[in-house]
Amino acid sequence: MSQTDCSIGVWLIGSLGNWLIGVIMDLARNWRLKDQRYRLEGTVCAECGAKFFPPRQVCAECKSTNLRPHEFDGHGELFSFTTLRSAPLGYEDQLPYVVGMVKLDEGPIVEAQITDANPDALKIGQRMEMVTRKLRAYGDDGVIVYGYKFRPVANGN
Fold this sequence. Notes:
The chain is of the alpha+beta class. 23% of the residues lie in helices and 36% in strands.
């Protein structure tokens, strides 16, 4: 085996190792965010009642650190949206797709992908609901990561 062959082998192992470490770190991050991603869990301040998503450790209104978990009901209205035609790494297979900001009925504004909708039919103020959908997959036989997206409410209410 030549020195060039060894260098290529070391490069391949190093590249694979870096990729594997990246996947493991991303999976760990997704596990830590599971309550937020599957149940739309944020926080509510026990002192002033302000609600936050994503969860916070300090209330932005009264500066209290007395915050409790709060599961949002996942309903709101479309505040803003755009169609993406260029995607970050790992999301290229979903192009084009719509992302939007949904103002929850309970107050916070959530940024998320909009699904199950014709982009031309979306309107600011349209009623939306949270659904759980596939966010991405790691390879053909890899782990599938799920999370929240929003879709228009079928009857508009």
